[in-house]
């Protein structure tokens, strides 16, 4: 019975996220305001710098964690959005990228951007869920050299399953680098309900949760860089830009969506300032 309920929860979470990111309002908002090609939390050197610059810096910083990226390697991107990271990795290091993402709308835009960048032969975009990856289990020298994910695993109601799938298809000795908005390890019960209501999930992961699950699955936790202040910085910048461009957005996006987005951003900012949230870069390795 528990497995049946768990499966229903998983399907509902995936369906909710897919419907949200497939909406015209979300597509217009994330592609315009959130960061252009990189729709995830940025690393800000200056609180006034453009969102897309800070978001791209996150990609570069994560790539720097992977000192051995080579042209003959294959990277799996879980929750790849518009494939901004995939294009950077393919262009900079020459790697092949398999990009799994649940939003068909985002995936179509990603394919168009990949084609325009002359990287379609390097990047394969796959409509699918990271809770059930369409790949064989890694054995010996087979499997992915690197698995990559940015601010996507929170949308799963089965986060342990996502990490288990990553472990299954990752080559021995390979790395899994990811970021995810999380609750703090000491977050009081109930205080994040406005955020959870917004993303239609019962919980967030936490640094401790991911560390425990990773170790239980067999990963070595190489490091976790706690960069929680950047979560606050990012949501504040997105809120500022949304307020600045509201009049322009109203012609393209439902005004009710914009108001819900502003309220949601304020909840994230408030939760971060109170110490209830966490964000950073995890680097895991599958033992040889």
Overall strand count? 9
Would you tell me the structural class of the helices and strands?
alpha/beta
Question: What would CATH call the homologous superfamily?
Answer: Vaccinia Virus protein VP39
The number of domains: 1
Alpha carbon gyration radius: 18 Å
Give an account of the 3D structure.
Helix 3 (51-64) packs across helix 4 (84-93) and helix 9 runs antiparallel to helix 11 (255-273). The chain has 288 residues and is α/β, with parallel strands linked by helices. The chain has a single domain (2-285), classed as Rossmann fold, CATH 3.40.50.150. 48% of the residues lie in helices and 17% in strands. It starts with a helix and ends with a strand. The strands form two sheets. The protein has a seven-stranded mixed beta sheet, with helices on both faces. Strands 6-8 form a two-stranded antiparallel ribbon. Residues 1-10 have low confidence and may be disordered.
Topology:
Blueprint: H1 2-22, H2 24-34, H3 51-64, E1 74-78, H4 84-93, E2 96-101, H5 104-116, E3 123-127, E4 144-150, H6 159-169, E5 170-179, E6 182-183, H7 193-199, H8 207-217, E7 220-226, H9 228-244, H10 246-249, H11 255-273, E8 277-278, E9 280-285
Parallel strand pairs: 1-2, 1-4, 2-3, 4-5
Antiparallel strand pairs: 5-9, 6-8, 7-9
Helix pairs in contact: 3-4, 6-8, 9-11
